[in-house]
From TrEMBL:
Belongs to the TonB-dependent receptor family. It comes from Flagellimonas aequoris. Residues 289-367 form the TonB-dependent receptor plug domain. One of its GO terms (biological process) is siderophore transmembrane transport. It comes from the Bacteria. One of its GO terms (molecular function) is siderophore uptake transmembrane transporter activity. The keyword Flavoprotein does not apply. Gene3D superfamilies: Carboxypeptidase-like, regulatory domain, TonB-dependent receptor, beta-barrel domain, TonB-dependent receptor, plug domain. This is TonB-dependent receptor. It is a multi-pass membrane protein.
Length: 933
């Protein structure tokens, strides 16, 4: 509030002796020395004693000073020195009236003795700012009518900042965080406007905002789908913060459409990004009725897999190991169950996944192709709730438990399979003793300390056991945990500190009638610490910066004889260790209303470390065991080899119209970890290998250009993107390579070049009774291995298609709501058959028949297509029910297409025969019961 007293300046006439005398008296009174002790008194006692010793009468409200901590003592100090020190860390100013021996404490504002120059020439009746006495161009003081300050439909007036005569501006910065008052979660994409002006700010994913407001009185409004609208009166005295606790809008509507970020695909600078809510998999018919957010991702352009039942995803022509898959900031190495048929993520605890196929946010690195950032939902902080399902193969349950109302919660999810009965019921004696089971569990704790600080912790574990043959039991598991602390450092800066650990291992337990029983184990473990800061400099700049550090520990494998009679010789490959670090800086720069830039840079550092031994090989000779030149031993923690370099993340968006934009991006990346596999598709027993003295890191470069258009008030989204990607030092295997438990595995692999290019089309209908999307991708993925020696070449050193090169890929997802309770869904997929290597002849040598194979991946298996249909039946929508039900009836592969999973060749009676295997060659019906309470 700004006060005006009767100006005493009218009594002081320039040049008069009376004026000089009055000024001298005022100066003497205010400079009278005072000694007062403050470190042992309450604030009320301190001001009472100060009033007695100074001779001034103080005027203030008790609650203004009750939180002031006074720790210092004052010796021979003036009254102004004492007040300047005591009030420096508060929002209080003071005004001294010498005539009446009074001191007024003021909330935020300043009392002026004189009107600013030109004040009466202004027409504004509403506050526009404050002014230093006599300043010509500074804004005038703030006025507002007390009777209009508060109305019944608004929250109380709030004062921001502390007025400072030395820092008077036309506008000040207001920042803060928007929080859902019920769940404690941040509210992204909330629109915050200044009433009567065109200024607007949008909250980011963490609910943070920053905007410039005119000095003085303002009314801000907020709006977002599903959130109650808010009006708040604020008076800006200086820069400051205001956190917004907003309630949910529970109004009954005929149709609820969530489109707070409906134009983000057009307006954001980042290219090639997708977001999938877990709920989107609810109505999509998938195998055995299982919700699968990763399977839904494969229906988007540019994302595919090597085949049905294949683990891992191929993004824009990249290998499966080139994807960084994160679950609440911790890496998950194999996010699938049962050869990729099911996801290893609980759909009822998963909130969403953000997919970056191009220039990912600057804090992510270490992979060439993509980032899958999977988030677990925060729990309900008001009441216990839950969700579950019972299907033909799995049972699933998730609970949300409030621990402290409106502050902390716990999410617990568990999921298990009972698929063994399916294998045992098949009319195939070889499968009668088969086993296939898995489970996964997750726990997430979330606590909101206040508006400026919150913490979350996640622990996850999954386990698979399967035995398709009677003599081998395979198992693999994922374990991870992470802790994330989000906090506000200042009005403009927020920080996120993340720590995580991930562990993946697999094993084979082999028992046969002979004496060759064994146990095989493999494991990889990594720990990461990352600190990211975000500073909003102004409306045009938002900086993201920080650092990360990661430690790898790999057990490449060991084999031990099982039982006293086993003849298997033990093998134990020495462990591998490495450090990986990064510094990153990004700036989202708003050049104009049409042009938005996102500029980022990372510097990557990697060091392979001992304890280890490394071979060196002769120059000018092929790398094999006969050309080993020396073996070097490295001590524990000693650097073996270091790699690193800069990475660029550059994106630009230009708005042609408000709903039509063009974007371009470029990025490059380093990858220091690789998978070793000579299978056509990803296998649970694929091993990971760290870069070292003989295996270089992979490097990738990608450029993207795209056009994005929304129609009919964002009901339809249309995008067209083209990309070109180049890769260096990618790994592949030599023909006949032996990769598992190989001490000199560098002699079995090759490093070469890769290139991928394509065009991606997506048409999406976001709302209405009929909704869904159509995607089409034309892409090529080619690799080249051209060494100096024939054994280091593949296909004579020419480019050849990768195992997952499928030029044409079409997906159609459609949902039709017949009534509020009944809906129909469809999923159609068509893909070009993937490449395969065929035998093209035979020859006989020493009375034995041998097969001659074609160039690698010269031929293709038949094209793949599949149609899935589903009926979704919701229970009645009565409010007071113990649980709400949802039944899905689905048929996977309605057409019974016998799509080949792989093609292999056998020799019978001297004749080579081609055989194919299929995962699901017949229609697979399923019914799943879902419930929610």
């Amino acid at each position: 509030m700004t006060f005006f007293l009767k100006p005493f300046s009218f009594l002081v006439k320039k040049g008069s002796l009376f004026a000089l005398f009055l000024v001298a008296q005022l100066t003497f009174s205010q400079n009278a020395p005072i000694t007062i002790l403050g470190d042992s008194k309450t604030s009320a006692d301190f001001f009472t004693e100060l009033e007695e010793k100074s001779g001034y009468s103080f005027f203030y409200l008790d609650d203004w000073i009750e939180n002031i901590e006074i720790e210092q003592n004052f010796q021979e100090a003036t009254i102004t020195e004492i007040l300047d020190s005591v009030l420096s860390g508060t929002q209080l100013n003071f005004y001294v009236s010498e005539e009446e021996k009074r001191i007024f404490l003021l909330q935020n504002g300043i009392i002026y003795d004189d009107l600013p120059s030109g004040f009466f020439g202004r027409q504004d009746s509403i506050v526009q700012g404050q002014n230093t006495i006599g300043t010509q161009n500074a804004p005038p003081p703030a006025f507002f009518a007390e009777t209009n300050v508060q109305t019944t439909d608004r929250l109380p007036l709030v004062r921001i900042g502390k007025a400072d005569r030395q820092d008077l501006r036309e506008s000040y910065s207001l920042s803060g965080k928007a929080i859902n008052a019920r769940t404690g979660e941040p509210i992204p994409d909330l629109a915050i406007r200044i009433k009567g002006r065109g200024t607007m700010a949008i909250t980011d994913e963490q609910g943070n905002y920053n905007m410039e407001l005119p000095a003085g009185y303002n009314v801000i409004t907020t709006s977002a789908m599903g959130i109650k609208d808010l009006e708040r009166e604020v008076i800006m005295y200086n820069d400051g913060s205001l956190n917004l606790d907003l309630g949910e809008s529970l109004e009954q509507l005929d149709e609820v459409v969530v489109e707070a970020d409906a134009v983000s695909n057009v307006e954001e600078a980042i290219t090639s990004s997708e977001e999938i809510e877990s709920e989107e998999s609810k109505n999509i018919p998938l195998v055995l009725g299982e919700r699968n957010i990763l399977e839904v991702a494969k229906a988007l352009p540019g994302i595919s897999s090597a085949g049905e039942g294949a683990s891992g995803l191929n993004v824009r022509g990249g290998k499966t190991d080139q994807n960084l898959v994160l679950l609440d900031d911790a890496v998950i190495y194999n996010p699938t169950h049962f050869f990729g048929i099911f996801q290893a993520l609980n759909p009822f605890t998963t909130e969403k996944v953000n997919i970056y196929k191009g220039a990912a946010p600057v804090e992510f690195g270490g992979r060439l192709s993509s980032v899958f950032d999977i988030e677990t939902k925060n729990g309900n902080v008001e009441k216990i709730s839950g969700e579950g399902s019972i299907g033909p193969v799995t049972g699933n349950l998730a609970l949300e438990i409030p621990l402290k109302k409106e502050a902390s919660s716990l999410v617990i999810g568990g999921r298990g399979a009972y698929a063994d009965w399916i294998l045992r019921s098949l009319d195939d004696e070889s499968l009668s003793n088969s086993e296939a089971s898995f489970f996964d569990g997750i726990v997430k704790y979330h606590h909101r300390f206040n508006e400026n600080s919150e913490v979350r912790g996640t622990a996850y574990y999954s386990k698979d056991n399967f035995s398709i043959t009677s003599d081998s039991l395979y198992n693999y598991s994922n374990r991870l945990f992470s802790v994330r602390w989000a906090h506000k450092l200042s009005e403009r800066t927020n920080g996120v500190l993340t720590a995580g650990n991930s562990d993946y291992n697999f094993g084979i337990d082999y028992e046969s009638e002979g004496n060759n029983d064994f146990e095989l184990d493999y494991a990889i473990n990594e720990s990461e610490l990352r600190y990211k800061l975000r500073t909003r400099l102004n409306e045009g700049h938002a900086l993201d910066y920080g650092l990360s550090a990661k430690y790898y520990s790999v057990n490449p494998g060991s084999i031990e004889p099982k039982g006293n009679d086993s003849n298997v010789a033990p093998v134990d490959i020495e462990d591998e260790q490495a450090l990986e670090g990064a510094l990153f800086l990004g700036d989202e720069f708003k050049v104009s209303d049409r042009l938005l830039l996102s500029l980022g840079a990372r510097y990557m550092f990697y060091a392979a470390m001992g304890k280890a031994t490394q071979n060196t090989y002769e120059e000018g000779a092929p790398r094999n065991e006969t050309t080993v030149q020396d073996t070097i031993s490295y001590g524990s923690g000693e650097f073996i080899k270091t790699y690193g370099g800069p990475e660029a993340r550059i994106s630009a968006r230009y708005l042609i119209t408000p709903d039509f934009s063009v974007k371009a991006s470029f990025n490059n990346a380093y990858q220091f970890i690789h998978t070793l596999s000579n299978n056509t598709t990803v296998s649970p027993i694929d091993t990971w290998k760290l870069s070292d003295l003989n295996i270089k890191p992979q490097k990738g470069y990608q450029a993207t250009l795209g056009f994005y258009k929304n129609f009919e008030e964002n009901m339809y989204e249309l995008s067209l993107e083209g990309y070109y990607k180049r890769m260096d030092d990618v790994l592949d295997f030599k023909t006949g390579a032996d990769l598992l438990l190989n001490e000199n595995v560098e002699t079995e692999v090759l490093q070469g070049k890769g290139k991928a290019y394509g065009v991606e089309f997506l048409l999406k209908k976001n709302r209405g009774d009929f909704n869904g999307w159509l995607s089409y991708t034309y892409s090529r993925s080619l690799y080249k291995f051209d060494g100096d020696y024939p054994e280091e070449q593949i296909n004579n050193g020419e480019f050849f298609p990768s195992n997952f090169d499928k030029p044409h890929d079409v997906s159609l997802i459609a949902n039709y709501r017949l009534t509020r309770r009944f809906s129909f869904s469809m999923n159609f997929v068509y893909q070009t058959g993937r490449p395969v290597t065929y035998p093209i002849g035979t020859y006989r040598f020493n009375n034995s028949d041998y097969v001659i194979f074609s160039d690698r991946n010269k031929y293709r298996i038949p094209d793949y297509y599949r149609l899935d249909l589903g009926i979704n039946i919701e229970g009645n929508h009565k409010k007071n029910k113990l649980a709400h039900s949802f039944i899905t009836i689905q048929v996977y592969n309605v057409l019974g297409r016998n799509n080949p999973y792989s093609v292999f060749f056998v020799t019978e009676d001297g004749e080579v025969k081609a055989l194919q295997s299929s995962i699901f060659g017949v229609p697979i019906p399923s019914i799943t019961y879902n419930f929610k309470f």
